[in-house]
UniProtKB/TrEMBL annotation:
This is enoyl-[acyl-carrier-protein] reductase. Belongs to the zinc-containing alcohol dehydrogenase family. Quinone oxidoreductase subfamily. The keyword Transmembrane does not apply. Its EC number is 1.3.1.104. Gene3D superfamilies: Medium-chain alcohol dehydrogenases, catalytic domain, NAD(P)-binding Rossmann-like Domain. It catalyses: a 2,3-saturated acyl-[ACP] + NADP(+) = a (2E)-enoyl-[ACP] + NADPH + H(+). Keywords: Fatty acid biosynthesis, Fatty acid metabolism, Lipid biosynthesis, Lipid metabolism, NADP, Oxidoreductase, Transit peptide. Residues 14-322 form the Enoyl reductase (ER) domain. Signal peptide: none annotated. Pfam families: ADH_N, ADH_zinc_N. It is an enzyme of class 1 (oxidoreductase). InterPro entries: ADH-like_C, ADH-like_N, ER, GroES-like_sf, Mito_Enoyl-ACP_Reductase, NAD(P)-bd_dom_sf.
Length: 325
């Protein structure tokens, strides 16, 4: 079997390698053996490989943060799962691996009719979008939310989930050719970043009172989103795609009573019960199965093509998946 790992921190395509590992063997009581079907390369994986993530693993370290797998062998004492069921990798597992032996606690069978490529992206981006929409501001049907990086995987999930909840979206993008694509996905307003963003947002939304902004870019664009918020609004920052800091002036936050919050999914996992985590994951699985949540996949690579896959993913042109088998 194969595993993708890093032996140093640096440029992801330079430090990644595929290694051969022995088979994990038969499962014990309460364990299952799972074969990876698909596992995405997320921006957070690339940040971790550079040594800049919120946690830094001991090297050498296997990589991969989410994926979907088939149960190939089940140990004793397991209820609700059988061989052939499709499951998510347990949280904390390294997923860029042919075969794994894992604890069955918290695992559940995913909808058989759902696309496994889409299910492989269930654990990170859809819950991030859903939780940011529901846990910071009590939005009602007809309310507005504004987000940067509207064409990202989280951005697309925000558009889809907001539509399901009756919330209207303003999505800010960098390229005008994305406007029609996101509109077709259900985005209410799509604007290209640039000068006078707050003025253009007010015109497009009829001067709506926007109480929630979501940002994954950071840098100078952070202040532009801040300016679009109504007094008392909240900006939730969940990424630093720009790679650097940006201006965030204190005065507007004091005089307009604005709030800046950070969101990291790992913190949410750590403070919630297994039951709550499974509840959110099952809701995301249902929305993937019915087509509400969909992320285009640009390419798939086998595990022995790890450097090529990472190089492709680092270009940021589309979603890249590892495939098992």
């Amino acid at each position: 079997m194969h595993s993708v790992q890093i032996n140093a921190f640096g440029k992801p395509w330079d430090v990644v390698e595929t290694v051969a590992l022995p088979d994990p063997g038969a499962p014990g009581a309460g364990e299952v053996v799972i074969d990876m079907e698909f596992s995405p390369i997320n921006p957070s994986d690339l940040v971790l490989m550079r040594g800049l993530y919120g946690v830094k693993p001991k090297l050498p370290a296997p990589v991969g943060s989410e994926g979907v797998a088939r149960v190939t062998k089940a140990g004793s004492g397991i209820a609700g799962l059988k061989e052939g069921d499709r499951v998510l990798f347990p949280r904390g597992s390294s997923t860029w691996m042919t075969r794994s032996k894992v604890k069955a606690d918290g695992l559940f069978a995913l909808p058989a009719s759902a696309d496994p490529q889409q299910l492989s992206m269930l654990m990170v981006n859809p819950p991030t979008a859903y939780l940011m929409l529901t846990e910071y501001v009590a939005l009602k049907k007809g309310d507005w939310v504004i987000q940067s990086a509207g064409n990202s995987a989280v951005g697309r999930a925000v558009i889809a989930i907001a539509g399901k909840l009756g919330i209207q979206t303003v999505s800010v993008v960098r390229r005008p050719e994305l406007i029609g694509e996101l509109k077709n996905l259900g985005a209410d307003v799509v604007l290209v970043e640039g000068p006078d963003l707050a003025k253009r947002v007010a015109e497009a939304t009829g001067k709506a009172k926007i109480m929630l902004a979501l940002d994954s870019v950071g840098g100078p664009g952070l202040m532009a989103l801040n300016d679009c918020l109504a007094n008392g609004g909240t900006l939730v920052a969940y990424g630093v795609m720009s790679g650097g800091p940006g201006p965030f002036f204190t005065a507007p936050n004091i005089f307009r009573d604005l709030t800046l919050k950070g969101f990291w999914l790992l913190n949410w996992f750590n403070r919630n019960s297994p039951e709550r985590i499974a509840e959110v994951q099952k809701q995301m699985a249902a929305w993937i199965a019915d087509g509400t949540i969909f992320t285009p996949v640009e390419a798939t690579y086998s595990l022995d093509q790890s450097a090529a896959a990472i190089s492709h993913a680092a270009k940021g042109t589309g979603k890249i998946l590892f495939k098992g088998g």
